[in-house]
Amino acid sequence: MRFFFTLVHRYLGLSIAVFLIITGLTGAIISWDHELDELLNPHLLEASTVGTPQSATRLAHRVEQQYPEVQVTYYETAAELGHSYAYWVEPRVNPQSGELYRPGFNQVYVDPVSGDILGKREWGAVWPISRENFVSFLYKLHFSLHIPEFKDIHWGVLLLGVIALIWTVDCFVGFYLTLPRRRRKQRASQVRGDQFRSNQSYWQRWKAAWKIRRKAGSYKLNFDLHRAFGLWTWLLLFVIAFTGFSLNLYREVFFPLMSLVSDVTPTPIDSRTPSGHHNPIEAHFGFEKAITLGAEQGRERNWQAPVGSLWYAREFGVYRLEFFAPEDGHGAGGVGHKAIYIDAKTGDYLGDWLPWQGSAADIFVQAQFPAHSGRILGLPGRILISVMGVVVAMLSVTGIIIWLRKRGARVVVQRRQSRYA
Where are the domains of the chain? Predict the structure, then answer.
């Protein structure tokens, strides 16, 4: 049995090692995505004009007038002092060809006071890599490997979801292999004292798996780094692997499975079938009415925060309005803010969403991204996840080295056997 699981761990680990090196190192960096982006791109994210900010909604219309080939689909209604308005845009359908335009950008930055466009960029662009898209390049590499979608299927996202699922299983296999072999009883009449001493010896032998032998040679050091770090960080490795699977395969696997085993409250978006990226649903009214309808629903619930952002999910025909102040833009523990859903055709109220509320299953679903990113623990959590990204890459590299050395030793033995055969 142990030999079987050794083979399982070896080949599952080898099949995902390169992917884990990439996602581990990129994850260590993108834990600080906002800070790095502000450091690299102050010309986009900072605004210096003094005065009273204009309406973000009014400037959203100006962006669409300036670039008629795109549609604003997300923006925050207010910005922190000294920051620009950031508009996410998506291409409209070209009426002549029936295909989406290719504007070459998906973000536009505007000075809130003057209304001047500070710049635009393609978030997640593959090439050329510049300071403007460096952070987003790493972010997209982390969750999709930049594998393009085909027929409205995000193949890179699905691939890394499968990789994370394999990794989740391999976490348990690897843990099992750290346990020492149990010694067989020498005779059936073994007394209880011998059994106690045998069990005590078993746990004493397992202690060695948690230690690193620094002066035992490079091979043993490499092996101990792989085994000991895997044990000390096992729980975090499992959390990162499982949440990676749940996030990338959310609609395909995770949500349906959760719905089978527990009561999960679907959002209006979860309940709808997407029309497809290349077939967006046209809204029957604009930003102003959506904000008015959302604010009315917020007042009925005595929510004190204003409408902080608007997102038009155009593959679902739904407006999602979040309620927060500008200084709270990053959300409650990484899970987001209170939200209202409005049907973009009828204006009907579709439902709301409350962070860290609902059934146990609802809270578990909400916790997936905060746990994966470390934001659930605030700054210490982000530091921890950044360190874990390096650990994941290190475990993958040491695993490859172990395999290469053992393979090399087997080749040498086989050559000697063939020589004297």
Answer: 1-39+134-180+195-265+376-421, 40-133+268-375
